[in-house]
Write a structure and sequence with these properties.
Strand order of the largest sheet: 6-11-7-8-9-10
Largest sheet: 6 strands, antiparallel
Number of domains: 2
CATH topology of the largest domain: Rossmann fold
Radius of gyration: 20 Å
CATH superfamily of the largest domain: Response regulator
Length: 248
């Protein structure tokens, strides 16, 4: 069965129609978007058909974002819906972060650029997409897909966020690489006669091919020297350097 990130349903809640529309437009190519005009509208929509993720403004007339969060946490079928709060820095530090505890994926401070919000939320969408693929896998514990649909960067970020332990096998043309993760951190990478960080830097640039994640496969080897985030950042730096040298 083919799955896309459109399988992930995201409810966007904001009483400001302009901001709500901007967020919906920004996210619609990455997930299935539903919108709500205020907290009460979001509560009804969430109870009727629980979304996979909620992005909610904090300050809204009537039922605010925190009250929406608390009401949904009090119901069995909605208590585990991940939340992203959009609020001023002061509200985040003084009213939200100390009060809501677990269950909040991220806090996005106002004012924000829509592109930045989309970039942060997309990492969560990718992780939720991966979890859905795992749940519907034809082989227990093994999921497969194409890199055109989910890039190596998105896969690695999702495995890190989900703190997954697995083997990520990548095929690109005649090349095949294996990356082993433990608790979301890449510990070992192998491609041909090469091991370690250099393998990760190479495969992060693969834009097409196939991937397979086996949650039952492990390796005792440790050839990676950086965190998963560190690998991704260093790979981006090396690609930028390479592009600049080509242009000059």
């Amino acid at each position: 069965m083919k799955h896309s990130t459109q399988d992930v349903r995201v409810l966007i809640v904001d009483d400001n129609p302009m901001i709500r529309d901007l967020m919906c437009r920004g996210m619609k190519s990455h997930c299935a978007v539903i919108s709500a005009t205020d907290g009460a509208d979001a509560l009804l929509k969430s109870i009727d058909n629980p979304p996979d993720l909620i992005i909610s403004d904090f300050r809204m007339p009537g039922l605010d974002g925190r009250q929406l969060f608390e009401k949904l946490r009090g119901r069995d079928n909605t208590r585990n819906i991940p939340f992203v709060f959009v609020a001023s820095r002061g509200d985040i530090e003084e009213k939200l972060r100390p009060a809501v505890g677990g269950g909040v994926e991220d806090f996005i401070p106002k004012p924000f650029f829509v592109a930045d919000l989309v970039r942060q939320v997309k990492k969560i969408v990718d992780r939720l997409h991966l979890e859905k693929m795992q749940k519907h896998a034809s082989r227990p514990g093994v999921i497969q897909g194409r890199l055109e649909e989910m890039s190596v960067t998105e896969l690695m970020q999702s495995l890190e966020m989900g703190q997954k332990s697995c083997r990520l096998r990548l095929r690109h043309g005649s090349e095949e690489a294996e990356l082993y993760f433990s608790g979301g951190q890449c510990k070992h990478a192998h491609l041909g006669v090469t091991d370690g960080d250099a393998v990760a830097y190479q495969v992060i640039g693969w834009l097409d091919g196939e991937f397979e994640i086996d949650f039952g496969a492990t390796s005792d080897r440790e050839t990676i020297t950086l965190t998963t985030t560190g690998l991704l950042m260093e790979a981006m730096r090396l690609m930028d350097e390479s592009n600049q040298s080509v242009q000059s």
